[in-house]
Design a protein that fits this description.
Length: about 375
């Protein structure tokens, strides 16, 4: 358990909320780090530190946010927002639309944030004001406020060649134990389509390995949604091997499936989101990939299922998507989707030409077509 700092001056939380604070800080991870940074800073706004803790506890306890990284990102964005308001001499509880515009301009001109990053920052601030409004502690100035336009980019996946390159270099780890962990983790990312937070917080009791060939992963995803993903084949065998090796780690002090094995860090603790990202980055660089990402395994999982004939609704459930439109965006880069193209004879009909590689008798037939692909009646 991580040491919990004494409550700072100005923090006025009831006993139960102080206990929740201790639990969240004691768990460590990105959210604990963000809240420690908030507590270490001197704020001019009276009561802000207490409000911040109550808002965070509402997200985690009441609304059921299981994604600690998302809440941590929200905290950091809102802390910057409150800092901006204090520097501008503004009361964040009585902000106007024009002042909110000023904050967005500040993000663009001073912090050089992209439209996507400014939109994410607005989502975090909107969450805070929604909380205050629901408790009668302030007006939600963000209600109806239109932020930067959402930038939709095409999902990216790993090709079969890239996957082979990745798994070919996994054995180059610093030790056999690290090799076993990384191989099992990367294969599980591919075979179950887990988010980085889901795999970093995955516990041993969430794995149901009924044999060395078949099993299930019980996942707690975004929005407190639980789903079960079946797994078969090599990934099950690799997980069995890794769990056996994991049980022999003397420094082990967590129930996380994937643990930190570096002596420079907290050896035996959960690997964490950053550890998962670093593992993928390190492996991708060894494989000589120009670009990579943890999320690409998730996109690859979805597109491979679709190419193998799985229906979109089933894929949505396995991915834990709330909207099927999100699933469709992933599948846009699948091989099955890309098999559909306008046939060459349609283009030749529009151009009034025929393919050069056809025999003369076939070219004659093509010239007689009316453009619809149908020969005129005799």
């Amino acid at each position: 358990m991580v040491d919990v700092p004494t409550a700072p001056a100005g923090l006025a939380l009831p006993a139960q909320e102080l206990q929740i604070r201790a639990q969240l800080l004691g768990q460590g991870g990105p959210l604990a780090a963000s809240m420690r940074a908030v507590e270490a800073r001197e704020w001019r706004s009276a009561g802000w530190l207490t409000t911040c803790w109550l808002w965070v506890q509402c997200l985690v306890v009441v609304r059921g946010f299981r994604n600690a990284t998302t809440v941590a990102d929200y905290v950091e964005a809102v802390a910057r927002f409150i800092g901006w308001a204090e520097e501008a001499g503004l009361d964040f509880r009585q902000l106007t639309i024009s002042e909110l515009d000023g904050w967005q301009r500040w993000l663009y001109t001073r912090r050089r944030l992209s439209a996507s990053s400014r939109r994410q920052a607005l989502m975090a601030v909107r969450s805070l004001y929604s909380y205050l409004d629901s408790r009668g502690e302030g007006t939600d100035v963000t209600k109806g406020y239109k932020g930067p336009k959402r930038v939709t980019t095409q999902a990216k996946k790993y090709s079969t060649v890239q996957l082979k390159a990745l798994f070919a270099v996994v054995h180059e780890g610093d030790s056999e134990l690290i090799v076993q962990r990384d191989r099992a983790m990367l294969l599980l990312l591919l075979a179950a389509g887990l988010r980085r937070e889901e795999i970093s917080t995955l516990r041993v009791d969430q794995l149901d390995l009924v044999s060395d060939r078949k099993g299930q992963v019980h996942v707690f995803g975004k929005g407190a949604k639980e789903r079960t993903v079946p797994i078969v084949g090599p990934v099950v065998r690799e997980l069995v091997k890794w769990l056996e090796a994991r049980s022999r780690i003397e420094e082990l002090h967590t129930d996380a499936v994937f643990v930190n094995l570096s002596r420079s860090g907290d050896k035996g603790a959960g690997l964490g989101v950053k550890g998962v990202e670093n593992t993928v980055k390190r492996t991708a660089r060894r494989a000589g990939l120009g670009s990579w990402g943890v999320h690409r395994f998730r996109v690859t999982f979805a597109t491979m299922l679709y190419d193998d004939g799985t229906d979109i609704e089933r894929i949505r459930v396995l991915m834990g998507h709330e909207s099927i439109e999100t699933t469709r965006r992933y599948l846009a880069v699948s091989s099955r989707m890309n098999r559909h193209s306008l046939k060459a004879h349609r283009q030749h009909a529009a151009l009034g030409t025929v393919p050069d590689d056809l025999p003369l008798w076939a070219q004659d037939i093509e010239r007689k077509r009316d453009g619809s692909g149908i020969l005129p009646p005799r």
